[in-house]
Amino acid sequence: MPYKLFDVSKPIPERKEHTYVKHCNDPEDCIPKCNSKTIPGSMTERGCAFAGAKGVITGAIKDVAHVVHSPIGCTMYGYGSKRYPTTTELPDGSEFPVKDFNIKYIIGTDLQESDVVFGGMKKLRQAVRETNKEFPFVNAIYLYATCTTGLIGDDMDAAAKEMEEEIGKPVIAFNAPGFAGSTQSKGHQIGNDTLFAKIVGTTEPPATTPYDINFIGEYNIDGDLWLLKEYFNEIGINILSTFTGDCCHNELGWMHRAKLSVVRCQRSSTYIAKMIEEKYGVPYIKTDFFSTEYCAENLRTVAKFFGLEDKAEEVIAKRMAKVGPELDFYREKLTGKKVFIFSGGPKSYHLSIPLHNELGLETTGVSSMFEHEDGFEKMKDRVKEGALVIDDPNTLELEELIEDYDIDLILGGVKEKYLVHKLGIPSLLIHSYENGPYMGFEGFLNLARDMYSAIYNPVWNILEFQETEDPDVADVTGEAAEEVEK
Amino acid sequence: MSCVNLIEKERNAIINPLKTCQPLGAMYAVTGIRRAVPLVHGSQGCSTFVRYSLSRHFREPSEIAVTSLHEDAAVFGGRRNLIEGLQNVAIRLNPSLIGVITTCSSEIIGDDIIGFIKTAKKELTEKIGEEKTEKIKIVPISTPSFVETHLKGYDNAVKALVDHVAEPSEPNGKVNIIPGMVNPGDIREIKHILGLMDIESIVLTDISDPFDSPLRPSATELKPYYPKGGTTVEEIVDSANSTGTISLTKYAGSGAVSLEKKYNVPAELGPIPIGVQNTDQFLRNLKKLTGQDVTDDILDERGLLIDSMADLSSRYLHNRTVAIYGDPEITAGIARFVGELGMVPQLVLTGASNKTFVEDIEKVAKETGVEIDTMVGGDLRQMEVYLKDNPVDILIGSSDGRLIAKEAEIPLVRVGFPVYDRVGYHRHPIVGYNGGIHLIDLITNTVLENYYEHQHWKLQQ
User: Using H for helix, E for strand and C for coil, what is the string for B178-196?
Assistant: First the structure.
């Protein structure tokens, strides 16, 4: 039987379809059920559509004011929670006045009971006016529907249209109330659709080159983008637009002028690449920049499109010379260690093979909060016989799998991290990293180092009180033992 | 002239809030109960964002279940979600208590929470039998997100808990303590004081262990994981029989008032024992309720704080200006304490709209002889703009002000919730005399580092 029902989920047998155990001879369509509603009463890792739209897609844009039309909670939770730093550089050579403006400010309508009864449109319009007055330098204002405004039926698009005319700059409504769809993935899609419909094709770039790409689905978590951008620049490839890490509003408008769309986060942003291809004929490729192997391979693919293969080889060789020897050290330390990847989505298939090939780790299993079928097919393809592939695991299942499986490290989020520690297992933040960036050559080295420091944290050797002293305790890295063997 | 100078926010929109919505306060309160599960009746964001917020502040698990409302529930109501959700939590997690916490969506949809709980219990009885079902207390907690703030959610939760769970029997000689939304270190300090006075207590609710629990796999309750500690359901039942209730906060004392009305348990509301005089008041309240003496041990601890103040205040802190922001009770408490330190509480700012806060600050203004700029129902942007023309020497508040502090080049002493960019702040008290000692050390070291270090010879004793 390729599916597994955790003991803790016996009262909800529907969960069985969501946990697949890899068997190499299974037919291709054998994957966990996914992208469907969570069973009520679960401690799920999943978030809401608003989180997907604001938290993932648009929150990284540097020159936009974000107005959340909500009771205060959604506004508060949309603030300062994501690590996507921005510079002040704008593509036309000018400077945006505030660094990390996207992290620094959030605006909300703070809806009250009377607004719920009488509607919040007036407040929303007023908030847009006030935002424009407070931050006159922003180049656009984005408005977000939430559960409350979705339920009371405030017409966000009408307000956006009206205010755009009044203030003379783009005002765009994102209709992704929290209850929409089964996961935050719905918010990603709405974010893509809205940005495509309202912005793409509306502006022209200050200059173009024959080597222009859209870098889509790269949000600059912990500076990932800045690292990858160096590689592209050195190869001679120009990132004309990034969707949406460290990008500006106008930049999204000229995505139709690129020669190629390079899709990084395939779950959250393939939508817009497809739409741009369909409408403007810009082809897209799906890529992967986690690990040296994937990074090199994908740099080659993108470079080949532009006939810049030689340059790519130079960049790859230079970086490998820099990180290779250190990676060798970590491979030696990490070989044979077992990881479980609790990711939001694509990292569960990006990481399993490189962690094995380049660092010698074994993947006990992978899971995802919001992946769809195509992502789960890749996850399944890239793990070994017997590995678990789980959709939307809940806390109890996490506990059981830690108890039943041999796991040395869990890659997960803040919600899992501290529980995993309580169970005596090291963990590492993979959604927004610990000491990132984690992408690219140097990034993979950061990831290797963080995994090493998590697994070899001396604390795991002194976890419990011992009645008699253990002579090996002081030897936390195992190096002394190796010396003896020599 | 000593008075309060109220500064109005000149806009309606909130920019960088100093408050969040009610459900967080309720989830916090339910987490303080032994083997209890908060079940949020709303969208997944309502649980996930809160788990994230609590986990990053306490660096602890925050296990919260959700009924996962989607479009169909928005149209047809969340009946099945709640009924199924309750049963799943009950059967899979075998909790002592489930707090059913509403949200904006479930309140707007108008779900009949009480009715759904009845149905869920009936269905549950068929599945696991009456005895097991009856063992699980299910408490409806109404926390509409569009009314007031997270503190109101906490208040509503504590009130709902005592209203649904407390039962009168024999007097127990204990004191109920409603701590407010404070840190584990604060609750431990309160329990330490009560211990020194030989007073037994029931903390409503006690997050001190659940949000600061030991990593001891061999001694940890698993599948489901429940953190150590927390107030037991039996204690909440027994809270109707206590000698009195002290709510450390005037802003969330409904539970205390309710116990007084229903069961004649006398209630004392606030002030939070931050600083010397507020802690003195707390001890007097304790003595009044229990007749227990304020012991020498406690007076020695008081003396240690006084000793620090004598040593440090005039030398390093005198006349230094402070801006304080955060929850009303804590902000008012710290304002009074910095006044006791000879500092100037130049600006106080809270996100809640509350008349009591202004009264508290008026009192501080009278004591200090300072005109205190006061923002009620304010936000952090308001403070940022204010500081451009009215700089202060020190900021005291949560991590959410860190970027403002950095840009304004004003050192920030972190207190309250959330603190995510430094460690240990949940563990150390700011209440009681020991909390005062911790605070004066924090403040003085910040002053030394920022205002003395450049003339390092002045740091030689």
Answer: ECCCCCHHHHHHHHHHHHH
